[in-house]
Amino acid sequence: MKVRILGCSGGIGGRHLRTTSILVDNDILIDAGTGVADLSIAELAQIDHVFLTHSHLDHIASLPLLIDTVGDMRNRPLTVHATDATIEIMRAHIFNWAIWPDFCEIPNPTKPFMRYENLAMGETVDLEGRRITALPANHTVPAVGYQLDSGTASLAFSGDTGPCPELWAAVNKIDNLRHLIIETAFSNRERRLAMTSKHLCPSMLVEELAYLQRDVEIYITHLKPGQIELTMQEIEDGVGELRPRMLQNNQVFEL
What we know:
Elements: E1 2-7, E2 21-24, E3 28-30, H1 41-45, E4 49-51, H2 57-60, H3 63-70, E5 78-82, H4 84-93, E6 114-118, E7 124-127, E8 130-136, E9 144-149, E10 154-157, H5 165-171, E11 177-183, H6 191-197, H7 202-209, E12 217-221, H8 228-239, E13 245-246, E14 252-254
Parallel strand pairs: 3-4, 4-5, 5-6, 10-11, 11-12, 12-13
Antiparallel strand pairs: 1-2, 1-14, 2-3, 7-8, 8-9, 9-10
Helix pairs in contact: 7-8
GO molecular function, one term: 3',5'-cyclic-GMP phosphodiesterase activity
Pfam family, one: Lactamase_B_2
Domain Metallo-beta-lactamase: 18-189
């Protein structure tokens, strides 16, 4: 399993800031933020599955345009995996004919360009031996994280989350866990905002990582532009012994 980071920023701007999206091999996306737009049309057409952590714009921004761009080049629908709550939000507020066409009905309901597949918390989807499992998260809208398991090794991705004991209970059960990608959206000076918006700041990250019982490589995602250096320094000062690193665009993990 090859995992490539298409976007990992908490905002946009410049050549290297792309919002959350992860490409698994050539055919699976975890979230569909602005990083997806850097793929070629041929690469976009190969994507068969999109797993959404939640419905916020920075995680779904490229999905409507992806389907519009390559829907007629494909011989089967793009499958969007998400919780019932996220699917209902997408139906009501994105693919509603007012913001964007409903591609579950285009070109016709029997052969659409897109289809939804409900994913329950803790459920695992097996795609040719690649196992993707929904993990708990705590955000302002219904949200999940994901475990990506090749059979040999796993990567856990928190998605957007505030403090979440249930996440750590699930992560600590992953015997072959090799990498952990966890968000830290704000610096410590904005701890109150982090709490209100159900994100993490470095001091909160320290509290959360105290629950971690696995020896893993830790990568930080969703850093806000303009606060990157400050936030990473605060993380280093707080949990330096764990040596967390900043996730990078186009970083590749082999599982």
